[in-house]
Amino acid sequence: MTPRARAWSAVAIVAASLALIASITGGVGWLSVEVPDAFLFVAGGIAPAAIGVALAAVAHLGGLVGARSTGALLVAAVVAGTAGGLAAAAVRASFQRSDDGLPTATVDALAVGLVAVGVVALVVFLAVAGSALLRRAGLPARAAATLSPIGAAIVAPVLGVIAVMVHLLTAVAAIALIGCAVEMQRRMPVVAV
Question: Which residues are CB-contacts of 139 (< 8 A; sequence separation ≥ 6)?
């Protein structure tokens, strides 16, 4: 295994482990009656972002995407996760202000803006990954470049809600990615020094 492959494998394992810890911690915190905004951000933001980073690292390690696409996936994952976590906290703040009889227009606008940013970033992530997979499956580059953004735009809003709300699924995905990265690391040939 080359040092670069070992580094990408470590990135995948560390990111997936962070996603697992964040999803468990945030999910347990979310079960409490008075949910602190920090738990919402950890479970709905950090965990999905870390899953995206781990997915990008595994895809690069497996040769599915090149360096430029990997960079786009990493940036899109971090932006989507961060925006999603902040949007969840903003929605909660809006409900709290509404219960207290305070105006919510500014917080609502902030939440909508964050959701939009998160969905666009998730569309980019899915489009880049989908295009690479479709090209790998033998689809012409032009068809892959056309179909993947359309599919990403359809799937992204639903997937975004699932990523922010369903912490158990995030934890399961993290465990699967850890296992995948470890197995890929084990199967790679050792480079003689």
Answer: 147
